[in-house]
Amino acid sequence: GSSDSDGESSTTGSDTPSSSAPQSDVKVGMAYDVGGRGDQSFNDSAAAGLDQAVEEFGMTPNESEAEDGEAENAREERLRTFADAGFDPIIAVGFAYAASVGKVAAEYPDVHFAIIDDSSLADVPNVASLVFAEEQGSFLVGAAAALKTQTDHVGFIGGVETPLIQKFQAGYEAGVAAVNPKVKVDVTYLTQVPDFSGFGDPAKGKTAAQGMYDAGADIVYHAAGGSGGGVFEAASESGNLAIGVDSDQYNTADPSVQDVIMTSMLKNVNVAVYEYLKQVNDGSFPTGVTTYDLSVDGVGYSTSGGMIDDITGQLDDYKQQIIDGKITVPTEPK
Amino acid sequence: MSVPATATHAARPAAVAKPRRRLPRWWLVVAFFVILAALSVLEIITGANDLTSSGTVSAMFIATVPIMLAGLGGLWSERAGIVNIGLEGMMILGTWGAGYFGYHYGAWAGVAGAILLGVLGGLVHAVATVIFGVDHIISGVAINIIALGAVQYLASLTFVGLPGGGQTQSPKIPDVQTITVDSLSSNLLDVEKKDLFVVSELAAVLRALVTNLSLLVILAMLLLLLSYWLLWRTPFGLRLRSCGESPVAAESLGVHVLRYKFTAVLVSGGLAGLAGGFLAMVASSNYRDGQTGGRGYIGLAAMIFGNWRPGGLLAGSGLFGYTETLGLRQGGESVHALLLALAALALAMAVWQARQGQQRAAVITGFVALALGALYFAIDEVPGDFTRMTPYVITLLVLAFASQRLRMPTADGQIYRKGSAG
Amino acid sequence: MIGRLTRLMLAISTPVLALVAAFAITSLVLLAAGDPVLDVWDQILSVPETRNLANIIDNATVLYLSGIAVAVGFRMNLFNIGVDGQYRVAAFTAAVVAGEAWLPGYLNTALAIVCAMAVGAIWAGIAGVLRAARGVSEVISTIMLNAIATGLVAYLLRQVAVREEGSNQIGTKQIPEGSRIPNIGLGDGTSSVYGFIIIAAVVGFAFWFVLNRTRFGFDLRATGQSTTAAVASGISVKRMTVTAMLISGAIAGLVGLPILFGDSYTYGSTFQSGLGFAGIAIALLGRNNPIGIALGALLFAYLDEQSNPLQILVGVSPDIVAITQGVIVLTVVISYEIVRRYRQRLEQQQVARALESERGEASNDKAEEVPA
Amino acid sequence: MPTPAPSATEPTSPAPDIAVRLRGIGKRFPGVIANDDINIDVRRGTIHAIVGENGAGKSTLMKILYGVQPPDSGTIEINGQQVSLHSPADAIKVGVGMVFQHFMLADNLTVLENVVLGAEKRHGIGAKARAEIQRISDAYGLGIEPDRLVEDLGVGARQRVEILKVLYRGAQIVILDEPTAVLVPHEVDELFGNLRELKNEGLSVIFISHKLDEVLSVADEITVIRRGTTVKTVDPAGVTARQLAELMVGSELPSPSTEASTVTDHVLLSVEDLSLPNPGGRPLLEDISFKIHRGEILGIAGVEGNGQAELVESIMGMRPGATGRIELDGTDLSDRSTGQRREAGVGYIPEDRHRHGLLLDSPLWENRILGHQTRPPGVRHGLIHRGAAREDTQRIITEYDVRTPGPDVLARALSGGNQQKLIVGREMSSDPILLIAGHPTRGVDVGAQAAIWDHIKRARREGLAVLLISADLDELIGLSDRIEVILRGRLVGSFDPDDVTPEQLGSAMTGAGAPA
Ligand SMILES: Nc1ncnc2c1ncn2[C@@H]1O[C@H](COP(=O)(O)OP(=O)(O)OP(=O)(O)O)[C@@H](O)[C@H]1O
Ligand SMILES: Nc1ncnc2c1ncn2[C@@H]1O[C@H](COP(=O)(O)OP(=O)(O)OP(=O)(O)O)[C@@H](O)[C@H]1O
Ligand SMILES: [Mg+2]
Ligand SMILES: [Mg+2]
Questions:
Q1: What total of structural domains would you count in chain B?
Q2: How far apart are CA B145 and CA D123, in angstroms?
Q3: Which residues of B touch A249 (CB under 8 A)?
Q4: Is the pLDDT of residue D259 over 90?
Q5: Which among D165, D169, D159, D251 has a CA at the least distance from the CA of D209?
Q6: What pLDDT does residue D254 have?
Q7: Rounded distance, CA D48 to CA D237, Å?
Q8: CA distance B218 to B208
Q9: Taking each helix axis from N to C terminus, what angle separates B390-401 and C138-160, rounded to the nearest 10 degrees?
Q10: Alpha-carbon distance B82 to D125, whole Å?
Q11: Burial of D80 (C-beta count, 10 Å sphere; 0-12/13-18/19+)
Q12: Nearest to B159 by CA among D79, D333, D61, A1
């Protein structure tokens, strides 16, 4: 468990003396969402940001992850335990922590908190909200899909039907429509809350994707965490394409399915975490909402594999329009 | 677990033998074609083409097998009189076993590992229930809790740091061979595309059988047949079943009851483990935390649905796998079509009930039929939330309408202690 | 037959034996994994702070209700796996009703609670009716109904959901201040436990009283023991089946409410799940007896509370907690069995001695053999 | 296996014709001494009967001889060889076979499966086995169909299946624990015929029964057990049933003889056109009509499985689908629930006490409440009154001489005879006006039998109507004021007990004879 991940992060940390990196007395508490470090998804991305900061600034990290379907007071207790153990700042990964952070931040006014994927605590002085414009990134990969589809038929697979994942869907659909309104978009969610197995059931992901490909879709975008592996397999078995999510999955996914990953929607949680910690290291605890959108490359798309090199021009064009506000991307599906 | 549905009926039946001949073999073939024809008609009426596409069929295999194997595990242990709620846990153990051994030693080692881990789970259950005579459900529930914690714990120890591995998932693991007969496959595809009545459906099924058919699917079916043969056609099976029907009688005839129960539970665990392995290796391609998603319980349900018999189990898990697949693939359309089918079935049922003179039942069923029909015409796609309910709702409806002459093994779930004969 | 002291010793030895065994097994796991065994136990066995105590009691309250709901079924040989679905449907209903606040203050609360119980009862009642009228095994139907509940609630939730600015969560309307159930302070000023605990206690007592002191309870237990005997004694088994499921469901309907009225004030995507399955383990651990269930719930809650410190302060994966919980369930029942056998052997030896003394016969002490 | 007790005589090379020699057998259960220093010799080629009260230790002894339970002390010799039997398997190996008192059959398996179970090595489980079973069945005229589900068999047939099981294994020593308890005369005669054949083939038979004249008629030697120890072994030629009974219980051998008729013309129970359809089969009951008057005992005679159970359960309202009219003292019960019928004043002594009469795992005082949940003393205003229930149970225990430590023991721990006395006591306690008694003395020892008979007679004197079902024709003839014979679900003849012999009844029951 985290004993090992500790080991990991501290090794990255303990490399530093040899490379005579600066030491910092900042102790960072990292409260992951279900899955924690190594979920091949956004927890991992956050962890990457942490590791980078630890390496550069020599901070002392400690990690803890949520249990599936745990009690609210378990989340609160996680944050309190960090606070009591002298950790400051404490980073809560995932919107599930919103309520707990709100409550605990009030109990510990001198401790600084950061929460990812939630900005409902915008005006709490000791809380920094790190949110992303997933819909913007999704818009671009949607556009890419619409530009690349041979069959004018693409698909979207969401892991669990939550407002967050619906943002991905909304942006994707908008992006497709922007290029060619006639392109059909199939949408499937694998499970419903509180059944979060949709983020970890590749079998379901594969079946759903296979269904879309059989129905004529030739590109499927997944925002389904661990179930995405199934989507990629379905793509490679049926000789179609898929779009990854969160990180550049072309590099993280198994080599056998690399060549079907046309692009990935990048949600740079690692950047957010790193930059937050950087400021902390510089002695200022940011508060309020920081939105990571296209303008700051908080979200984006990947080009590894060179499958979309021919359309990057158009995509960057869309990107610019979004940044300039010429296009406003919806955050909720129609 | 629970008193058999028949138990409310008192007293032994009088000396007249009730007609209880089971249907002859050829009947299965007929049923198969009837179903195909029905679906074919349904497709033509509703235009929901995914109902019997080869894609659906092969996905259905994948969805069915884990449930079927888990149910088969349940069948083994309950036939020997041991209720096994722990199937889910043993399945979970199996997924990790497949992940670990599969990654390090190759596909078939993964299969072996899955079975091995399942057997370990079975061992715990066997020791608790058979040797210590602990309540079967307690032990099973405990195993489910332990297994979940154990695999997460193990995963964090074994998969962290491996390429593509982490505490919630293993690296990609190799899959066992799959069979594809390209020429046949493509030809059949043409036939399938032609939308010929029944022929195309048949082609779809055949195509699924010759396209990327995993050896494990075949193995699973063989295991089902083997189990049937072992349990109903050999002395071993007779003894094992007798331990579930009347352990005292068995012991009074020199059968080592506890030994058979123990064996049965181990086999049960192995099968459940294999079910988990299948999920990890065939249905997907790595161990994933929470991968089983309650399929162990579904397997249990499928076994009860199948009246503790292999054939019924296959039907139960097949029905579930099929409807789940439909819901996941092009749910909106396919499930919408199913509404019509259900309406028709209910209507037929109502008529039959009326014939039987069960007026009240007939009225209720008829009403259900109307409601379903109305719903079908009211909407033209079923919203996603409900397509995902399909397998559960259908199972429930089928059970509610099919008259229940379930007959669980008489001594199922009872704690047996040596020497209680007489 | 055997002396009061021995009896007491035996009674005590059971839980002790169980805990020691669980302790040993868990330690072995930790050793095998190379985790710091001593630190782990040091943490687990350290006296919890008032704050943690409050959490433990709160979670125990919820688990307790769940355990009781399951136990009602078990007492009649009905296996209600569906508490999980029942409490979610019910909690959602209560959240909506209370959120709409058609009635003022506590009337609103009362109405919500009643609705929750009603909905829970109906959801379980479906299984009951199917069992009674169509002979459908409640094991299947409740499993299916759990899944259906998930889809249904998810759908309805999205219909009624309110989503505050900037949040990625959806939930029902917040329950107005006046309708919330005040928590009970634990004296240290900050910590407090759900006021709902009182209702839970009442439920526990009612469960005990109805089952052991009323005719209805007798009928229920009789049916659970022998359907045939129940029928012959004039009990309508079908009616009992439905009634038992209704009651079980009604209690299940209460499971989520302490959280709803004492903490979250809304039903949303992060509402605690899986309580029904925990309830099964706890009901069995407590042998379907209200006191036992209370102890079981406390034990589970206590261990759950350890998972954060274990991770953060000791650096051990919290999964060890789950393992320990499962192991304890097993060791408890197994040690019950061991003690039972030992006791039986003891009694036999006593019979033997009685015989000798009364016969004044020479050594005739061969009572070792147990009729297993 | 403990070392043999010093009390047990060392294997003195026994006479060659001794098949079984038991020496100093002792067995204890929690709180009970079932067997204590039992010594028995069974000669080869003889029928050796063992008699004793309920709970005397007969079944236990036999279970020991059959390896089901290990003795605490003592030695067993089979054909001169001392053996230690750890399981029935061992016993079967040395040629011992046993027919248990409570049938050892798996209802949901076929006759074939039940028979070959554990002996598959002999003829497999297929055609050969079927043939062999058919052969034995024909050889002894058992009339067994191998492929019937045991569930569908009547008691008699089940009994014969049990015997077939033993023969199929080629046993040399056959134990029969109360085989006749459930049989009607001609079945008993057939059974005895079979036993004599076995005997002539050189087999040894150990035979347990509570029916002493049977014992006298069939046995070559009789061993009496009292309180778990052997009292005496006697030669049937030299003793009368009365003497035997005195050896057993030290009490008089009762005979069920009616006193002066107390029949009135006030009809208490009237049953009209009672039918019970059987989906997919011949109706279980067809147009049954009869009346029972105050102070009258109506006996129903019939071969097991001809609808007696169904008749009783239909009257009790336990059979959905039963049609016809049932009136109790003028009030129509036809569409009342079982509970309401009980409240209306029906007392019910069920045929199968374990299935319908008791909560085996509940204390006696709770069993006192069972079936009387709506009435004091056990229940008042929907609340259980433990105190009152315990008291009343204690009263029953004393009045009906139930042998048990007290109201708080589990029903399971009582021997069947005592379980039965408890049930009778319970049903009489809520002053019913109709008493339905199914095989009230089945498997009950002579002492208890007498007691139960007395209670039934008292009920009659007190003006109850009694419906008595029994396979024991002497009991029927002795107690009844009128006897109806039931055959294939119909009443086929009415007899006056004063001028009918068991034989006549027996033939009427099998459809052979016409009513007198
Ligand atoms: N397994 C057991 N556990 C506890 N007590 C037992 C057990 N078996 C028998 N007994 C007790 O041992 C005594 C002898 O029982 P046993 O069955 O041998 O009597 P029996 O002679 O067969 O009586 P019956 O004539 O009713 O058959 C009884 O008091 C009975 O309660
Ligand atoms: N495990 C047990 N614990 C306690 N008592 C038992 C146990 N097993 C059997 N007994 C009692 O011991 C008696 C001996 O068993 P057996 O089968 O001989 O019954 P029985 O005394 O012959 O009863 P019946 O008169 O109905 O034949 C039984 O009546 C039963 O009630
Ligand atoms: Mg006996
Ligand atoms: Mg007896």
A1: 1
A2: 47
A3: none
A4: no
A5: D159
A6: 56
A7: 13
A8: 12
A9: 140
A10: 24
A11: middle
A12: A1
Q: Which of C159, C190, C311 to mutate to test the interface with A (most CBs of A within 10 A)?
A: C311
* A-C contacts (CB, under 8 Å): 120
Retrieve residue A296's tokens: 């700051």
If you average pLDDT over residues C224-244, what whole number do you get?
93
Q: Which of C222, C229, C366 sits opposite D355 (nearest CB)?
A: C229
Question: What tokens were used for D221?
Answer: 């030697």
Is the pLDDT confidence value at D374 over 70?
A: yes
DSSP character for B174? P
* Per-residue CA distances from B360 to B307, B346, B365, B399, D323 (Å): 27, 14, 9, 18, 19
What residue ranges define each of the domains in chain C, with the CATH number in brackets? Answer: 36-315 (1.10.3470)
Whether D321 is in a domain gets the answer: yes
Q: Which ligand 1 atom is at minimum distance from the Cα of D225?
A: 21
- What is the D10 CA–ligand 3 centroid distance (Å)? 28
Cβ-based neighbour number of residue D325 at 10 Å: 14
Residues D233 and D151 in one domain: yes
The domain of B193 spans: 49-306
Inter-chain contact D72–C366, Cβ cutoff 8 Å? yes
pLDDT band for position B132 (cuts 50, 70, 90): very high
Q: What count of other Cβ atoms lies within 10 Å of the Cβ of residue D375?
A: 14
- The secondary structure of residue D413, as a DSSP letter, is G
- Same domain, yes or no, for D339 and D471? yes
CA–CA distance, C229 with C223 (Å, rounded to integer): 8
Residue D362, domain extent: 353-430
CB B208 within 8 A of CB B180: no
Cα separation of A277 and D324, whole Å? 87
Strand partners, D83: D76
In a domain, B287, yes or no: yes
CATH of the domain at B76: 1.10.3470
Reference D302, options D488, D432, D440, D463; nearest CA is D488
Residue B395, number of CB atoms within 10 A of its CB: 24
CA–centroid distance for D127 within its chain: 34
> How far apart, in whole angstroms, are the C-alpha atoms of residue B266 and residue D378?
48
Chains that touch B (3 or more CB pairs under 8 A): A, C, D
Distance in angstroms (rounded) separating the CA atoms of residues B133 and C371:
14
Note the pLDDT of residue B187. 82
Q: For residue B345, tell me if it sits in a domain.
A: no
C-alpha B385/C-alpha B372 separation (Å) is 17
Number of structural domains found in chain D = 3
> Residue A13: is its pLDDT beyond 50?
no
Question: B351: Cβ–Cβ under 8 A, 6 or more apart, which residues?
Answer: B362
Amino acid at residue number A43 = N
**Domain for residue B356, yes or no?**
no
Burial class, B380, CB count within 10 angstroms (exposed 0-12 / middle 13-18 / buried 19+): exposed
Quote the ipTM score: 0.85
Cα separation of C142 and C128, whole Å? 9
Give the pair of three-digit tokens for residue C269.
């995507």
**Distance separating alpha carbons of residues B28 and B26, to the nearest angstrom:** 5
Beta strand spans in D30-164 (E): 32-43, 47-52, 73-78, 81-83, 96-99
Give the C-alpha separation, D164 to B121, whole Å: 41
Task: Convert the pLDDT of each residue in D271-330 to its tens digit.
Answer: 999 999 887 678 889 999 999 999 999 999 987 778 888 999 999 999 888 899 999 988
Which single residue is written with the structure tokens 């506590």? Answer: C106
**In 3D, which of D505, D503, D502, D479 has the Cα closest to residue D494?**
D505
Do D334 and D272 meet the contact criterion of CB atoms below 8 Å apart?
no
**Domain contains B325:** no
Report helix, strand or coil for D104: coil
Query: Is D20 inside a domain boundary?
Result: no
Helices vs. strands in chain B: H and E counts, helices first: 17, 2
Let me know whether D510 and D441 are in one domain.
yes
Residue D116's domain is classified under what CATH number? 3.40.50.300
SS3 B132: coil
